[in-house]
Amino acid sequence: MDFAFYWSHTDAVSKTLFFILFALSIVSWVVGIMRVAQSCKLAGSIGDGLRQSVSGSSSELSGLDFSQKKMVVEQKLLQNIARYRFEMEKGLPILGTTASIAPFIGLFGTVWGIFHALHSVAKSGQAGLAQVAGPVGEALIMTGLGLAVAIPAVVFYNIATRMNKRAIHVANDTAHQILAETAR
Hints:
By secondary structure, this protein is mainly alpha-helical. The chain has 6 helices and no strands. The chain has helices at 3-8, 12-55, 58-61, 66-88, 92-124, 129-183. The radius of gyration is 27 Å and the shape is rod-shaped.
């Protein structure tokens, strides 16, 4: 069964589901690649960024006593780590949502195809393989498409989340080092 044959025998619901899955696939690949690339870039520069943010405020710290200086540095570090975390989490809800809903969209397409198979059997009055095989095959294609969309989204989500955790760990380590340097 080739794609042209499949496409000619599907109805508007199946075609709509196909386009939804196709759009979700494109979006998840684009967002996933961009998210992993940006997370990799941020993971490499987060320590330097924190050091620059604190060193840029050295004029503010010059006239303060130790406890005030520590508080100002802590607040600046917390503010910058929160900004980095916000940047790193962009796009993750899209990947998570795609990974969650794509199998269900595929499953809905499967149920819709099996409905057509049963309708075909009811029209012909015979429950032979010829009446059921085509529509059931079309239904299983939708299941496969749903999984083909969900699996890359899950992989991108997990890779980006792991990279973000590592970057936040580096940020926290750097923040502790900066605070230790401030105490001296």
